[in-house]
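Lecture notes, continued. The same structure-token format from the folding unit now serves as the input rather than the output. Read the line below as a description of shape only.
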């Protein structure tokens, strides 16, 4: 069987050691790939270190204002100019287990044989210390709040999802042709969820792979817009920040993926920031790091 051509898409900013560790695990995979890495204005020597240790990586320079969606969008656009069979979104804080990529490719191959060629395959991750699930596939809640997304615990067989968190996502070329790139309406958050939801509307499917593909720690609620230990002014500043729920991207997302009553849902993250979370051991899933997580209200 022909070996598939795979483009790995990554973005980073001032996490040199984290990025290098990710690339080290990536280079132990038993598949052939090209890496498109956006260095979004790092000042810690990330590009030089990557060039030294992994000279085959194609480094694209950002201006420091691309954030997660912008960086991944740039990497994706460059890779789409090639003749790849698959594109892999990979967060630079995700450490892949051995054979993770070959397993994802095998799962897509099996789903294609079963009549699902236009399938996105999502790899679930676990915390390196606790072993608990962190990121992967997501399903839209059936409750009244239609923008609540619930994590899908990986099982023994592929599970169909509504969308995904973008830490480790395999996208076949046929899906990329239908859906295109990440939407430029988003900056740091919501872009991965939007991509999966748009793919579903275009008659593609999203599947959570069995088991785990590697490790990635979940971000803490402490110090975030949900932390009631912070003054209200600080929480509001954080929730409107690019890494929180900036008004324009959040409005686009809610209008696009909610019911006709989207305007009822729209203020909820801002109200949640005012109320905060007093129990910081029960976190809302949101993110202020190199990728985004979503709010669960």
């Amino acid at each position: 069987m022909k070996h598939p051509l795979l483009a790995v898409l990554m973005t980073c900013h001032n996490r040199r050691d984290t990025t290098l560790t990710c690339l080290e695990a990536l280079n132990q995979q038993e598949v052939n790939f090209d890496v498109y890495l956006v260095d979004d204005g790092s000042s810690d020597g990330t590009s030089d270190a990557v060039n030294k240790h992994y000279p085959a990586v194609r480094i694209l320079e950002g201006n420091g204002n691309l954030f997660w969606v912008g960086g991944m969008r740039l990497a994706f656009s460059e890779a789409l100019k090639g003749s790849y069979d698959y594109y892999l979104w990979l967060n630079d804080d995700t450490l892949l287990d051995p054979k993770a990529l070959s397993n994802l490719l095998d799962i897509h191959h099996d789903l294609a044989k079963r009549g699902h060629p236009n399938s996105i395959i999502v790899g679930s991750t676990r915390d390196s210390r606790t072993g608990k699930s962190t990121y992967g596939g997501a399903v839209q809640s059936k409750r009244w709040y239609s923008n609540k997304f619930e994590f899908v615990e990986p099982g023994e067989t592929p599970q169909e999802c509504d969308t995904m968190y973008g830490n480790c996502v395999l996208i076949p070329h046929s899906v990329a042709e239908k859906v295109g790139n990440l939407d430029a309406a988003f900056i740091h958050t919501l872009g991965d969820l939007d991509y999966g939801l748009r793919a579903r509307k275009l008659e593609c499917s999203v599947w959570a792979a069995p088991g785990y593909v590697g490790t990635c720690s979940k971000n803490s609620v402490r110090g975030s817009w949900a932390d009631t230990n912070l003054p209200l002014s600080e929480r509001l500043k954080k929730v409107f920040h690019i890494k929180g729920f900036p008004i324009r991207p959040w409005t686009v997302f809610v209008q696009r993926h909610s019911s006709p009553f989207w305007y009822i849902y729209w203020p909820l993250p801002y109200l949640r920031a005012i109320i905060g979370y007093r129990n910081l051991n029960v976190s809302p899933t949101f993110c202020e790091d190199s990728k985004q997580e979503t709010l669960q209200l």
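Point for the exam: The domain at 6-215 is CATH 3.90.550.60 (Spore Coat Polysaccharide Biosynthesis Protein SpsA; Chain A).
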